[in-house]
Design goal:
heterodimer, A: 15 helices, B: Rossmann fold, Alpha-Beta Plaits, 2 domains, six-stranded mixed beta sheet, four-stranded antiparallel beta sheet, 14 strands, globular
């Protein structure tokens, strides 16, 4: 116990003597929480749009204004025909073309229905999909607006029967994230990323550094046990990880007003279970690498798998079966889900206990493997 | 007392690289035993096995009654190991390194200060300096201090003088002499043949095998050849001519001289005439006593 305490003291000494690590420990969460949530967003804004208005009527003008007024679109140009607009798209001056037919106003008044043509640059698939959805929403809004006005133009008898028709309206309710704020969805994921790097990756690189510098030889000829050596490597980063979590929870409350409905204690307890499992992964990485280069490459490999197959950006349920199978053993996935439940759904610790059990099981397997793959002497 | 019996170690798949091949030797208490051989001869592998860092394929090594494989925990308490490469924490200061290793062995610097006093005093003025910022010679002194701080019974030093200047090398061997007086058994390896004479006994190692083991004088006394030193201008041309001579058995460049072994029937005057015919007029030839390096050359050729 005394040896362990002394070893930990040495680790902290080295950590704070390193010119980069302490700064990184502060800078990294700040970056992750202050900058990334704004940049990494699937909300599509500022779509440049060309409106080709063949109708040139009052109604078509109103629709054009409505599109231009939307926060999603920037009205780039109103070219005379579709070909001119297409040329703009090919020159990457516009992302989207809305074509209003010549009969737009006549159709609206006489037949009470009309259509618009929409062409979207879908090189970026998300932008294509969301852009056309947004236009459809605007057109729908516009038509129901007109519907009210046009009713006034009907002869009195038909007007009555028209008014009697049931009006169907879809009113979506966005549960748990009423403002559809993408940041609130991403921040819990970023917290998991922070923990993965601070508690899984950094200690692994630290152990490999001792191998590369040869200092591990000098340690191995002392009577200290391997357990103490590894624990002394992990504990400082566990402490840093938990401190950073507390800072992150505070920051995300102060900046984004995001507070875990399930309670801070639940968030911290889940973090601890997760930390145990990623530490295991880190030790496995350090066991299989002799040099920092090997370790860095392995780390890169695992980070991509953890994050991309962990449901941080895209939901696991929409992945192919094999990817879901990987996600089922991915600790990142379980904590991201748990954090989102605690933060957005306001779930309690009992609600996320399934995830924590899975994390615990993963921790047992990974740490078992870590102990097994550690060769005391070659 | 170190007893090594029939030690084997090979690396690579199916053991393609034979690092150690049937190594056996004993070292008595309080002896300085030198393992001497060129790079890649297997010195480090042997020392790493004795330090319980790697496992031998077969054979046994008993250090003061403890087996390096079975009692490795005990081994680690009684040995001090200094690897060939500087392996202390470069970002900790001189003093912090020393205190660190003392604490890991459950002892204190004060308790064994008498052991390291001679050595540590020389680097004590720099005790607040980070180990990484020390000169090569000072790093060696610190490494030796750290290896000694728990009062080991056996000291294993893997090429402690490689990359150290001649003055520091001499100092270092003087220190080993004083440690020997304290009763510490010292096992040391080196690629410098001239350091052999500082050992009580030496073993010459080549390609994983001991090719001779005795006191330095014993090794020299066993030298079977007649050895001459040849001096002159145009060394490489001279070497070529000497090798072409029938009665010259071997010739090697030794600094500014050439050492040759010759048939008994050859006289110095005869060789001088032969060289004069080849337009080497200012050649000096003299019989000399062999050094350990000559013995090594004779044993390997």
């Amino acid at each position: 116990m005394k040896t362990l305490k002394f070893l930990i003291e040495k680790e902290f000494k080295q950590m704070f003597r390193n010119p980069l690590i302490p700064r990184l420990i502060v800078l990294f969460p700040t970056m992750v929480l202050l900058v990334f949530p704004w940049a990494v967003s699937f909300e599509i804004k500022n779509i440049r749009v060309d409106v080709v208005d063949h109708s040139k009527s009052v109604y078509s003008k109103r629709l054009t204004d409505k599109i231009a007024a939307s926060q999603y679109f920037i009205l780039h140009d109103t070219p005379p025909d579709y070909n001119a607009a297409m040329l703009n798209m090919e020159n990457d001056e516009t992302d989207m073309i809305v074509e209003i037919p010549a009969s737009f106003d006549v159709d609206l008044v006489k037949r009470r229905e009309s259509g618009v043509g929409v062409a979207v640059n879908s090189v970026n698939g998300t932008q294509g999909l969301l852009g056309s959805n947004y236009v459809m929403q605007i057109v729908n809004d516009f038509s129901s607006e007109l519907r009210g006005e046009l009713t006034q133009t009907l002869p009195p008898q038909t007007r009555v029967s028209f008014m009697r028709l049931k009006k169907m309206n879809i009113v979506p309710q966005y549960k748990y994230n009423p403002a559809l704020d993408y940041k609130k969805f991403m921040i819990p994921g970023f917290m998991v990323l922070l923990l993965t790097i601070l508690c899984g990756i950094l200690p692994a690189l630290n152990i490999v550094m001792e191998k590369e510098n040869g200092t591990i030889n000098q340690i191995n000829v002392t009577p200290i046990s391997k357990m103490n050596f590894i624990l002394a490597k992990l504990i400082p980063y566990w402490a840093v990880g938990l401190v950073v979590m507390i800072i992150s929870i505070t920051l995300s409350f102060l900046i984004y007003g995001l507070w875990p409905g399930g309670g801070v204690v639940a968030v911290l307890i889940s973090s601890i279970v997760f930390i145990l499992s990623v530490s295991g992964l880190g030790i496995i990485i350090s066991n299989y690498s002799e040099t920092m280069q090997q370790a860095s490459f392995l780390v890169m490999f695992f980070i991509l798998i953890l994050v991309l197959l962990g449901g941080m950006f895209t939901p696991v349920s929409s992945m192919p079966a094999w990817a879901q199978a990987i996600a089922a053993i991915n600790p990142f996935n379980y904590l991201t889900t748990a954090f989102r439940m605690l933060y957005l759904n306001g779930s309690s610790l009992a609600d996320v206990s399934g995830n924590l059990l899975a994390l615990g099981a993963i921790a047992v397997v990974l740490n078992g493997w870590a102990v097994f793959s550690y060769k005391k002497r070659g | 007392m170190i007893e090594v019996k029939d030690l084997h170690k090979s690396y690579g798949r199916q053991g393609k690289v034979n690092a150690l091949n049937s190594i056996s030797f004993t070292v008595d208490d309080g002896e300085i035993f030198g393992v001497i051989g060129p790079d890649g001869a297997g010195k480090s592998s042997l020392f790493r096995i004795l330090a319980s860092l790697i496992l031998p394929d077969s054979g046994s090594a008993i250090m003061n009654g403890h087996d390096v494989v079975k009692d490795y925990r005990k081994i680690r308490q009684i040995i001090g190991y200094m690897p060939g490469r500087f392996s202390l924490y470069q970002d900790l200061s001189v003093e912090e390194n020393l205190v660190f290793f003392a604490t890991l062995f459950n002892t204190t610097v004060e308790e064994n200060y008498h052991l390291i006093k001679d050595i540590y005093q020389q680097i004590e003025p720099f005790k607040k300096r980070r180990a990484g910022a020390l000169s090569g010679g000072m790093k060696q002194k610190l490494a030796l201090s750290c290896a000694l701080i728990h009062k080991p019974e056996i000291l294993i030093l893997d090429e402690p003088t490689t990359g150290v200047d001649p003055v520091s090398r001499k100092e270092f061997w003087d220190m080993l002499g004083r440690l020997k007086e304290q009763g510490i058994t010292i096992l040391v390896s080196t690629a410098y043949m001239d350091e052999a004479s500082r050992c009580d006994r030496i073993a010459l190692i080549r390609e994983g095998e001991f090719i001779g083991s005795d006191t330095p004088q014993g090794i020299i006394d066993d030298y079977p050849e007649i050895l001459w030193a040849v001096e002159g201008t145009g060394m490489s041309a001279l070497l070529g001519e000497l090798r072409a001579h029938d009665k010259v058995k071997s010739s090697f460049a030794f600094g500014d001289k050439i050492h040759i072994t010759v048939e008994k029937s050859l006289q110095t005057e005869e060789l001088k005439r032969y060289l004069a015919n080849k337009k080497f007029n200012d050649v000096r030839i003299a019989p000399i006593a062999p050094t350990v390096e000559d013995c090594f050359m004779a044993l390997t050729s």
